[in-house]
Every structure is written in C-alpha cells, then in structure tokens.
Amino acid sequence: MSLHPDRLFPADDRTRAIARELHRRTTGLPLVSPHGHVDPRLMSRNEPFPDPARLFVVPDHYLTRMLYSQGYTPDQLGVPSADGSPSEADGRAIWRRFAENYHLFRGTPSRLWLDYTFAEVFGIYKPLSGETADDFYDHLSARLTEPDYLPRALFDKFNIEVLATTESPVDSLDPHAELEAMPAENGRKWGGPGGKVVTTFRPDNLVEPGWPGWKERVERLAEITGVDTSTFDGFLSALRARRRDFIAAGATCSDHGNRTAGTLDDPKKAAEIFHKALNGEADETEILQFPAYMLVEFARMSVEDGLVMQLHPGSDRNHNKWLYEGWGRDVGGDIPSSNEYTLELKPLLDAFGNDPRFRLVVYTLDETSFSREIAPLAGGYSAVFAGAPWWFLDSPEGMMRFREAIHETAGFYNTAGFVDDTRAFCSIPARHDVARRIDAAFLARLVAEHRMTEDEAGEVAVDLAYNLPRRIYGLEK
Amino acid sequence: MSLHPDRLFPADDRTRAIARELHRRTTGLPLVSPHGHVDPRLMSRNEPFPDPARLFVVPDHYLTRMLYSQGYTPDQLGVPSADGSPSEADGRAIWRRFAENYHLFRGTPSRLWLDYTFAEVFGIYKPLSGETADDFYDHLSARLTEPDYLPRALFDKFNIEVLATTESPVDSLDPHAELEAMPAENGRKWGGPGGKVVTTFRPDNLVEPGWPGWKERVERLAEITGVDTSTFDGFLSALRARRRDFIAAGATCSDHGNRTAGTLDDPKKAAEIFHKALNGEADETEILQFPAYMLVEFARMSVEDGLVMQLHPGSDRNHNKWLYEGWGRDVGGDIPSSNEYTLELKPLLDAFGNDPRFRLVVYTLDETSFSREIAPLAGGYSAVFAGAPWWFLDSPEGMMRFREAIHETAGFYNTAGFVDDTRAFCSIPARHDVARRIDAAFLARLVAEHRMTEDEAGEVAVDLAYNLPRRIYGLEK
Amino acid sequence: MSLHPDRLFPADDRTRAIARELHRRTTGLPLVSPHGHVDPRLMSRNEPFPDPARLFVVPDHYLTRMLYSQGYTPDQLGVPSADGSPSEADGRAIWRRFAENYHLFRGTPSRLWLDYTFAEVFGIYKPLSGETADDFYDHLSARLTEPDYLPRALFDKFNIEVLATTESPVDSLDPHAELEAMPAENGRKWGGPGGKVVTTFRPDNLVEPGWPGWKERVERLAEITGVDTSTFDGFLSALRARRRDFIAAGATCSDHGNRTAGTLDDPKKAAEIFHKALNGEADETEILQFPAYMLVEFARMSVEDGLVMQLHPGSDRNHNKWLYEGWGRDVGGDIPSSNEYTLELKPLLDAFGNDPRFRLVVYTLDETSFSREIAPLAGGYSAVFAGAPWWFLDSPEGMMRFREAIHETAGFYNTAGFVDDTRAFCSIPARHDVARRIDAAFLARLVAEHRMTEDEAGEVAVDLAYNLPRRIYGLEK
Fold it and tell me: Which chains would you list as touching B if contact means 3+ CB atom pairs under 8 Å?
C-alpha cells in the first residue's frame, strides 16, 4: 500500500496515465532544498543518527502535537522540559507509544513521509503499529549504525544537489566553514558559495524586541561583527556585515518569520523605536511594529547584496501556553491566524516591488490569500513570487488547493518551486516525492481537460521540480 | 434518480466501487444524534404529526428562506406572524406553493433530504412538482395518521440510538421527566442518563444581557433553582445547580451559540458587568463581552461536572430585519459573517486547553477557519475537537471541503463525528445517510490514491459514523 | 489541443459524456452580455480593428500584468505612458515579445480565451510561440482588413443578442444615440431600449470625492443635465435625470465599483459630507464613507426607476504605484483584498432587501464570501443575486469553486448568470464558451453523483447560459 507506484495520482485511468508519464520526467532530477532547518553539523560532523525515537519522534512537532492532541504529554514522548525535569528516557518506550497511535496519522502527510522513509530509505515494507513497533525499532536501530546511513552517505543517496540551512546572524557559521574546508566530491564542494550545503540569513531574533534576550543578542551582534550596534545605523551596518559573512558561507537568501506581513518604510521612525527598545522604553505597538520597519530595511539590503527575501508570516507563536511554559519554543504549540498581504506589503512594494534587483518569496498559512492576494501580487509585481504551501499546508490537499488557486492568475512561472522546510533530514526525499507527485497529478488534470498539451505539462513539471527553485532562490551557479 | 444506490459517490468506477464497500460497513449502524433541536414532547406525547405543510415546510427555515429569496412572503407559507395577524391557513395551498418551486432546491441538501424522506420514510417514488403536489399531499396526509408514523415508531424505525434535544436552563425539563417515567424498551429507557432521548444545556438566553427579557430570565432561574441570582456568585451557583438537573435528565453536553468565539477569563470583571447589566447600566461593549466571560465560566463548570462544551459561533442573528420584525426569531433570517478562533479562544485554552477533564467541540460557519485555525487547534490541544460542518455547510460539498481541509492537520480522530442539528425529526435518517455517504466518498478517494488501505478506511468510516460521536459527546455509557 | 471538443470537461468517461450532452443544449443559444467594457463606438463606427498587438495585447491588462510580473515594462509593451513619453510603437515587436512569453500563460484563462479566438474567430490552428509569432501577426493583420472582421459583422457572427457597455453619467451617450439611429436588422434595433447595444449607468467617478477631478465632474453633471448640482438634493436630482437619459439609451442596470460593500442609510449625513467635499473640507473618513451613503441613495433610485444595481467591491485600485504613476489607471495595477458583505450591506438590505422592486447583483474578488456571506444573502433576500465570478475568478477553477460554494445554499436561481465583463470584444465568444463548459462540467458531476437528473441539469444549463442573465439584468423585453 504505502508505496504503490501510483500513489497520490488521480483515480481515473485517463488522468492517472498522464500523471504517471509527467511524474516520470521528474523522478531522476536532483533534489533542490533552498529552505529548511536541518542542522549543518549533521553534515560537518557526519555522526550516526541517534535512536529511532530521537531521530523520528521527539524532534518532529508534526508527530508530537498529534499525540498531545490525544492526551499524551511531552514528558511521555521524551521532549526535554524547559526546567530540565526528567522526561521519558527510554527510546523504545517512546517509539511504542508512537507506534500504538499510528492510526491517528491516517490521511496526514506525516504518514506519507514516514511510510516512504521506512520503505525507501530503511527498507521496511510492513505497516507500523503497536504489534510491529519493536520490529521497527530493532530494524531502524541496526541500520542507523551502518556507514550507508551516515548523514553524508544519505545526502548523496538522496541525490540532494543543494541544501540550505537556516541560521540567525548571532549563530556561529563554523559548521559551514568546516563544510567548506572539506574536500570537494565529484567537483562539488560541501560548503561555501555554490556548495552542497549553504546557509540562510534569518534575523528574527534580532528584530523582535519583545523576544527575551533581544538586547543581549544586539550586543552579541556587535561582538561578532566588530561594529557598534548601540545606534540604529550601527545596527544596520552590523547586519549588512553579517549578511556578507552569510553570503561568503553560501547564503543566497534571507528568511523572515514575522508575525504579520506588515511593512513600514520609515528609517527615522525605525531608529527611534530601536533606541527606545534598547532603553526598555518602547511601548507594545512599537515593539510589534519594529519588524515591519526592519522588513523594508532588509529589502533595501537585498537590493544591494542580492539576497532573495523569504517571508513566512501568519503564525501565532507559542499559542499553547502549557507547552511553551513547560517545554519551550518550537515544540508544536504554534497556531496560524488570518493574514493580510495586499495592504500590508504595499509600503515595501511601493519601494521595491518592480525593482529588477529585488526578489521576494511570499509564503502563507492562510489559504484565503492564495487567490485573493498572493496570486495577484505574484502575477503583477516583478519582485514577488508565491512560495510553496507551507507547514500545515505542505500536504497533498494543501498543495493541490495552492495550485488550483494560484495558477490561473499567476501562472506557474511566478511560483517559486517546492521547499521542504524540514528539520527531519531523513524525510527530505519523501517530501519532494509528494510534491512532485501532486504537481504531476494537478498538471495531468489540465492535460486531461485539454487545457494544456502533455508536452507543455512535462516542461512545467520539470520547471517546478528543478529549474524554478534553482532560479528563484539564486542557486543556479 | 433520487435514491440511486450510488448517490453521492464519485463517478469514476475505481473510486465508486471502494466508496460502495466502505459505505456498506456503516449502513447498519444505529444513528447517534448528539446535537439537535427536535422537541422532546414529540416523543413524550407521541401524537401524530400535523399536515404535510406544517410538518415539512412551515418550520424548516432551509425551505422558507429559499422561497423568500424568490419573493414569497412568510404569510404565503403559513409562518406565524409576530403580531398574530393571519397567515395562510390552508396546508394544501402552502404545500402547492412549495411543490411548484421545488426546482429552486436543485443541488441543495434540502432536496437530498426531502427526496430521501419521501422515498425511504413515506414510500413515494415520484418527483415532487406542481403537477404531483396534490398526490404527495394526499399520500403524506394518509401516512401521517397511521400508527407506524407516530414519532416513537419512527424513532425505532430510524434506528436512533440516542437523540439529544436542546433546552435553556429556564426551560422545563418535564418532557424529559415524562420520557424517563416511560417503560424501558429492549432494556433501554426513553429518558434520563443513558436514555434514548437526552437534553443539552444551552444557556444563550441567560448570557446575552441584550436579548429582550434577559433580566426576567435571570429571575426565573432563581425561582427554578431556589438560588438567589441577584449576585454573580449566585447566578453561577444557580447555573451549576441547573446543570446538575440537566445531567440528571441525561445531558452530557452544553451548547453555546455565542456571536463570536471570544473568551475572556476574568470572573471579577464578569461579576461587575453582570451587576451593571441587571441594573441596566452595562454599555454596549460590556453587553457584547459578557458571553465571552461566561464561556470561560462554563468551561470551569465543565471541568467540574463533565459536560462536553459545544461552541457554535459566527451567525449574525436576525439579520433580515423585515423577517425579524414581522415573524420573529429563527425563521431563516440569520446570516453568517467571518469568525476568528486562534486569538479568541486563547484565554479559554490557556486555562483548560490541555486539561484531560475538559472537552470543547468547535463548530464554524466560516470555512476559512477549517485549515487555518480549527484543524491546528484540534490537532494540538487535547481538549479541542472539530465539530461537524454546520448549518449552511451541512451539505455534500461542505462536508467534503471540511474533510479535505481538516484531516491532514488534525487527522480523523480529532473530529467529533456527524451531528444532524435538525428540528425536522423526519429528516434525521436522510441527514445521516448523506454524511455517511460523503465520508465514504472522501475515504474512497484516499484509498484509490493509495494514501490509506481499504481496511483502515473502513475502520475510520465506522469510527466517524458511530464510535467518535458516542465517545466525544460522552454517550458511550 | 487548444480546441478539443471535450475541453474543460471532467476526465472520467461517465461524467464527460453527461457534460458533453448538457453543453450541447447551450451551444446554439445567443450570447447575452449584460456587463462589460467594450467601447460603444466600435459598433457605431464599425471601423477595422487596429494591428494584432493593439487589438490583443496592449489594452488587455490580464496579458500586460503577467508580462510585468516577469520583468517587462509597459513601455516595452506599447502601453501609453501618463506623461506622453514614447513607448514601443512597432506592433510586430510588441507581438513578438508577447508570443515569446506565451508559456507564461499556461493554465490561465487568458490562454484559453486566446487559443479559442485564434482558432474559432481567426482560423489559426497552430500554437503561438516565438517561432510562429510572425505567422500569427501576418495572418491576423490580413484578416483584420476584411469586411467579415469588422465589428458589426463579428457581432452578428458571435450571435450576440445584447451587449451592455458601461458609461459614467458624465460620459457622452452619443455613440448610443448613433446606434439607435441605425436601421434595425432582422427586426432588432442596434441601440436604445431593447437594442443590441445598451449602456450601463456607472457613477463611480462622481461618488468618490477623493478621485482627482471630482468637483469638476460634479459641475459637468450640472451642465449635462441642466440641474444645479451645488446642493446634495440637486446632485441627486441630476443623477436621477441622467439615469432617465441612460434608460432612454437602453440601460437596464447601474454598476458600482466601490472599494468596499459598505452601505450607510442617512441622507442628511450624506448631504453634509457632499457639501464639505465640494468645499474641500471633508476628512479622509468622510471621503471614504461617501460612496457607502451614495449606494443607498442609488438603491432608492433603483426602487423608483427599476435599474438593476450591480456591486463590484473589493479591489484596491492602483496598488502598483510605479504603474499608476507612470502609466495611469486600469493598466493592471489593481490588487484585491478581503471584503465583508454581511454587516456592510445590512443598512441597504434593511431598507430594500425584501422589496420586490429592487434587485442587487453582488460580485466579489474574495472567495471566502462565497459560502459564508453571498450564498446566504442571495438565498435569503429576494433582492439579492450572486454575480458571476469576477475578474481574477473569471476562470475555470474560479467558476467551479463559485458553483461548489454557492449552489447548496442559494441554489441556481439566485445566481445571475454569466457576464463576460470584458474590454476585449473578440474574446466574448471565448469567455462564454468557457463559462458554458464549466457549468456543464459542474452539472454533469451532480448528475453523475445522482444528485440531479440529466433533464433537470439540462434545464439549469440553459437557464444559467441564457434565461437567468436576461431575466435578472432586465433584458427580457
């Protein structure tokens, strides 16, 4: 079942045959991963993965949140608590809990990704359940000790052309330096510009004055760059300097996880808030607006240095107070809420929306913006591209609705191609597999309904899977 | 046509065959109806239904509103006016007007429900139209006098396991007491805890100070409970006491039709508004916010007494002024508008969202919240479940979009199962039939696309139709 | 490919066969075009169309905006600049640029419309591309000089029964007078009431005090009507007088492109703002609210004079500042944003929502309102009808989602039928072809799923294509 060759293709024979043929054209293409959250040390250190529970379950908030939703606690799943109090230490116990609840994931993308990974990466072909939990655990544990399952070996096996990680300006780029220092393979370097693993500039924790430790991070930025960050101009100079470091480490993009898509173009007002915030005198509105001013400043920098800007708004971070207080950030407690783009992005687009030197990839968690705002913006401004359906929408139905809602106004060539956006290295091929299949399925319908020829659709399929992400995210060199 | 055995199943042969098989597993299951508006006296009195027009047309605002939309007046349809001025008294004339306009309902769920009811319940197999109006009227009138068409006989024929009615705390529970006093049949009591007919605690008219007669109802609550309701503490105590009465009458749920999903956790402020409102001194904002405070108070009570909380926000009640002024509430003049959940529910979820003693079923009239808010909330908080698509969305397309938008993030086991939510007793089997068919059709697609095995889908189909509503709404005993 | 007889029909054989049959019933029906932007002088003068680039590319902002989105400038596409600075004058060069980028339009409605027009209207059966650009240009240029390709000849060839143009109250109605003066053909006049070409009353530039030149237009209205417009009563009288002129020129509708669907019923307050605005003393809120007051005034006039009111809100006009400043209005720089109807329309509906003399056709660019607001309003108020999916939603997927979201609550008979809304005269048959095919495809699914009989669906198909637009827009005489 899990790996039927026609999985995710439409049921009717006519469309399925076309989908199969379109998909075939993309199966051999390398994976391009211009946006994600894999730890670069995985590749620089190339150490074996931990046990199956810690590889698959504990860090994957798609899985843990589903188990919380049915009454399990983070402690029962081995998620480290904020205060260091003990949580389940036995990987096998965690794994069993997960396996016994595998039915909860029926119909979810997690289920598709895991079934693919178990079968294609680890060679397990039976269904996971309470009964087979131990078999899986033993089989996976054994594989993880083998050289073929070390991160770099998998990287090559997965046919990844390039993988972008995500770092804050105050994070170390040492892992990327280590990668760059490694010998090239088949003429490709591991790190640095044009390398297999590149970084992405993500300054969120420097632009949200309300995020605990903000002032210390602004100071840390000064230490790293040697630029005084006690003035707004200095802060901007330091960020510019740090962007140069990131570019030297291979970055082609910046990424911005602002709460909203709000933009404000007024450096003087931004400077005022910055200084107030450093002195602890900024009010709540100012604190919330500062990222909107900064987004325009970063766009200004992009025009200069060429980093492609990615914008990921719409998530109400740490919504689940109990999770946040007990187990911290990024454990599955974020919830989307509605988002505006047309009016919010206008100041930024007034400044740079038609500038050939600027590129903005817009993501959303709010599907209502697909046809109403994002498609018209991407289909009207040279700078704007529609990012792949993200997070809760990174799923067969989400991708299908994205294509259905976007392509009639923005076409295919104002969309930026698939990004896997994953922390889970082993799931990368599975995620690209789903995306390529859904695009094939969607295009097959257009062909079957005589809205496009099969040749055109084949060209589009290859562009979506490979050429567009390389081109839009600046990874063509 | 109307009752083709494959109705509502996808057209392509592969998927249709699977849908047929999945549906077959649910056809014999009893109907569980945990939320609805049938009058309990129907069962306690067991009197014959009135004439066809008064059974089918006059009280069904799905039907009357469609006829208003084409220029008919409530008077022409026999809807009683607010001031007692006469309306059409001749059932046959009303029926003819309805039958002549049956084409207006093409493609609507009302049409599906009625065609099912005419055929399966009343044995009429021809299409309704102006020409057949009288035949229908005569046939239906004749059936309605027969013992097999008395309410209790139909209850058993429909294979209803449990039917929840809805009462206000100031409504009498006498009909439920009468039901409880009736002899058990096949080991099942008609009323009381675990009975065939149970009540639901719906306090809307006690928590909206702006609703005419509010103060009188607060006083009436004191009379009923013997608890002084002139203080906020007393008011809460009286509500708690009344909840105990409802639980004794079989209630397992409360239901809340607030205008928004707003919640506010501040009993002191709530008390302040309560006292102001009693004195006629609350301002408009306070009046609108009082239900938000009360929702948290009711959640607090649920944690204590175990009533499952249902929340039905999003309807702008009595939008059609002409209808409201002439014919009163609940005649089809409500119109939905947009609704927020993520931020609005946060205070309540901060307090009880992860509490194993609390359960909240969230409904919506705003589909934009399906994938953006309700699925993430249901798939992240142990207390939250996604309620069935409601009212204008209780339809084949509405249900299909609900499943498509919800299941990838929340799975199937964070949805609460179908509720028919009907005033129209005779439509209950038709409504469950549509829901079971659409779930079968949806699951069949997942199977046909190799996203789930047929065995898994069969298990899910049975869970959605029977096990989940019993479990989530506390009806398993 | 482009003109496969089954284009836009679902792929599975069962549904496709039904769609083919339903569509067949509509293919011979005349085209009714109750809303659009064709220049009436096209018909009154009957001059040959200009070169292919100026016919197809330059004035079509669906095409130019897509080319801007990929970095082309309006100058490169021959769009006249605001300051008269030169733009590309060579039609062939513009055409080549367009043809080389034809792949950008894959999957878009523009592509469907153009392929249809090239084949069915101009007899070109090969695909457009950079290679075939010159062949197309030569072929089209040759055809455009032939008598069969003069506007009136095409009007008849297209089988257009009636075409509504759109004029402002301060526009001249001379072209319509010229049409009325032309000899009747086959018993049908070209202009005037019941003519082949009628006008529509669109007062936007008189109700937005913030639109440059507003005061001058208010004065111009006085000149045209001979009514003093320096008082609000005079302004209303002049508008009433002008509506009589429009009705004499065949108008059956008014059209309103307000930014929002906001309505306010307070003539005294409206008068106050009007006078302030004339004196340049209205503040921003007042300026934004004036159209909301005026909408109710126009509804009041409709009740008197019978013009059907059309409402097109939701577009943030001239969003692309660079385009607006360089090339002016209506060149593709508008972007939708979210829109409310339920609360916004309430004042107008309180006044006239159930008045049999009033009819309001509501359009939207915000799909979220389809099921949530527009269907319930159209399915509940006798005055309200759901307008066809508009602009960015005038597309196969947009139309399909419209039907899916609307019909279960409003049925088919509260929708107003297709309007092509086009400036591009030659695309009219293509647009109706797409609409009729999509409605056939949608209805075919309902038949295939046994939700409607094929006979009923055939009747609905004809009603949607022909009877409903004639009836709802008052074109039956």
Answer: A, C
